[in-house]
Amino acid sequence: MTKVNHSDHNHFLLRSQARDEVITVLKAEKIDLALLEAKYGFVTPQKVLQALQRDAIQGKSDVFQEDIYEKPMVELDKLVEKQRGTHRRMLEQLLMVEQAHKQALYKLEDEKRNHGEFMRKSDEFTNLLEQERERSVANVFVVIS
């Protein structure tokens, strides 16, 4: 078995790293520009996108695991559903308030009608009392005279 000295080890390590970087660059050159734009979300010169993709590959991140537009669309769909639910609840509350308002109006109209009846009966009673008082006063004057 041969002994590997420190300089040979470093040379082998550097060579391995250089080979990995060349492979990464070659992979980045073969990747479709549309996929890169979908992943990073912007349109830039091809070399910049390739460099970003190369860095992602070197960083051992999942390549093209999802389109960056997919997550915002899912979130937007959730927001739309939440808004629909909120809108539905708001309409239900509005209907309840409208019904309570109608009920209050009916009660007020009923009270107004009852008050009108009471005032009419009260006026009739007052008129009867005044007529009775006038008769009594007339009878007292007839008796006195």
TrEMBL record:
Domain Cortactin-binding protein-2 N-terminal: from-to ranges: 17-135
Coiled-coil segments: none
Pfam families in UniProt: CortBP2 (PF09727)
Source organism superkingdom: Eukaryota
UniProtKB keywords: Coiled coil
Entry keyword annotation includes Cell cycle: no
Keyword Membrane: no
Database matches in InterPro entries: Cortactin-Actin_Reg, Cortactin-binding_p2_N
Full protein name: Filamin A-interacting protein 1-like
Source species of the chain: Ameca splendens
